[in-house]
Amino acid sequence: MISRVTLLLCGLLACLSLPALAADDGELNDLRTELTSPQWQLVRNDELRHIKTYARLEEGKRLRSFRAEGLMDASLDAMARVYTDVDNMPRWYWETREAKLLKKVSDREYIYYMRFNAPLNLPDRDAVFRAVIEPYTAKRGYMQITVKALPDYLPPKEGLVRVVAQDLFAKFTPVGKDKVFFETEGYVDPGGKVPAWTINFVQKRVPYLIMVSLLRMAQNKEYAEASGPTAYTFRE
Q1: How far apart are CA 94 and CA 18, in angstroms?
Q2: Helix (H, G, I), strand (E, B), or coil: what is residue 17?
Q3: Does an H or E element contain 82, and which?
Q4: Neighbour count for residue 158 (Cβ, 10 Å)
Q5: Which H or E run includes 218?
């Protein structure tokens, strides 16, 4: 049985109050067996919340890539406000202990720091990420945020393991006035000595938990009814 397992995400990766779910022996055995297909395989289909998650093993990578998608009952602006509000990421991003903005490069780019809980006697993880925003345009039809880890941006911190890789995107496609088809896809390597099957277990569950928590935040009045100026450009 596993209680909490390390991962950021995808960039995934952001502190969810929900506990990590334990897996039965059959599921753990399945995760110990590596995927052999480069095709996306359905992991979870939540028909009630309209959320699906997928995994696949890409050539040359020891860990699974992840994908999550869902029709969210929130506006593009509310979703984008939540996603770019770095200081409040510990309120919704899974197992995040700390998040802070390091540099606002422009109204379409920013660099931020995150620290994540790790289980039991494993050292916590930290990471620096660069996020680039492609604003929504009528021609493009969506807004997208691309996130990439910058492991050498800050010196290593004592007692922490630096996340070595995170490449992901979050895509926001408006569907009507107050719905967004949200997609996120990427790959995360939290660094250090952690069994691959343990990380894969997290990657199997965490994208779904983050999707649910992101939606809840976007439906909060502070984001859903916000009308003031935004720190970044979401639309052109």
Answers
A1: 8
A2: coil
A3: helix 76-84
A4: 6
A5: helix 196-218
Q: Pick one of 3.40.50.720, 3.30.530.20, 3.30.70.260, 3.40.50.2300 as the CATH number of 25-224.
A: 3.30.530.20
Per-residue tens of pLDDT for the chain, all 236 residues: 333 433 333 333 333 323 333 333 444 344 444 555 688 999 999 999 999 999 998 787 878 899 999 999 999 999 999 999 999 999 999 899 999 999 999 999 999 999 999 866 778 999 999 999 999 999 999 999 999 999 999 999 999 999 999 999 999 999 988 999 999 999 988 888 877 777 777 777 889 999 999 999 999 999 999 999 999 999 99
- 124 vs 159: CA distance, rounded Å: 7
Please tell me the pTM assigned to this model.
Answer: 0.83
φ, ψ (nearest 5 deg) of residue 12: -85, 5
Enter the tokens of residue 149: 């880890």
Cβ atoms of residues 162 and 115 within 8 Å = no
| Nearest-angstrom CA–CA distance, 106 and 67 | 28
